[in-house]
Amino acid sequence: HHPQLACNLESDYLVSQLDNQGRFPKAGEFHAFLREDRVFRHSRFTIDETLDYRDLVNDFLEQKRRRDNKQLVGATVHHDFYRLPLLWPDARFVYLLRDGRDVANSAVGMGWAGNAYCGADLWLEAEARWEAMRGGLAPENYIEVRFEDLVSEPTETLRKVCSFLDVTFSEDMLAYPQHSTYGAPDQRLASQWRKRMDPAMCRYVEARIGGQLRRRGYPMSATQRRPVGRSRDLLLRLQSKIGCVRERIRRFGLPLVMEDFAARRLDIQRWQFATRARCDAIIDMGLK
After folding, report:
1. Whole-number Å distance between alpha carbons of 6 and 62
2. Helical residues (DSSP H) of the chain, grouped into ranges
3. Structure confidence by residue, pLDDT tens digits, 37-69
């Protein structure tokens, strides 16, 4: 909502088809991927098939900038963000850091993991990717923002982000609740794990990510931690897989889940596309 900044929402498709060496996907394959990608379809971008991969992803951001009539443009990328410098080495990067225990709980709520122990893997991976990526960036080209600071001191935190981006802070940035279904910054959104995470699971999660939590300045809980042995680790990961399946069945229904599994197992492309489209429609119904 900043008057100078256009920011495209979820934009993982910009880099998800790159490999780690920076090799571009083939144009036809990339176009086909985009047309089937649920998030890309929501972007309402036009695919210019005369452009190569690099020019095309830049064109998407330019379309967003023109659409919003802003001077600068950026995008939000959750997964594979470490590949962004392969395309935009001189961009400025804002890394949003959150307590890994809250991230783990959120992953369960999204259906990405069946328990917080495995949900914490996503946080660990993101942190490792960011540390590697940060090492290749000029100090003036990145900033870290703590989620906890953003919800407790939004104005001061956003002033720092604006200064980093060389733009003037605008109160419009906090006006988004008037134009969306999202609420205003709420300090109660920080450290929800203290109330929502079972103490036994908290011990497992902290045994998994406690070292990184401490390095990031997050205090440990008062629960007694103990190492997670191999058998317990295997059991927790099995429980997570079962939990993910149960969540898919709850969300999509058993018949559609079974049909999607069969389509992927038999590798029938048209059938896969049809079942995925039906799943996407259900997901879209739950969007804010």
Report:
1. 10
2. 27-36, 38-43, 53-68, 84-87, 100-110, 116-134, 147-152, 154-164, 193-196, 199-215, 230-252, 254-266, 269-285
3. 999 999 999 999 999 999 999 999 999 999 999
Q: Global pTM?
A: 0.89
Q: Residue 222 pLDDT > 80, yes or no?
A: no
Q: What is the dihedral of CA 199, 205, 209, 213, to 10 degrees?
A: -30
Calpha distance 67→87 (Å, rounded)? 22
Rounded Cα distance, 248 and 257, in Å: 7
Distance CA 241, CA 115 (A): 9
Distance CA 27, CA 121 (A): 33
Residue 195's Cα: distance from chain center in Å?
23
Question: Are the C-beta atoms of residues 242 and 223 closer than 8 Å to each other?
Answer: no
Give the separation between CA 97 and CA 110, rounded to whole angstroms. 18
Rounded distance, CA 8 to CA 256, Å? 31
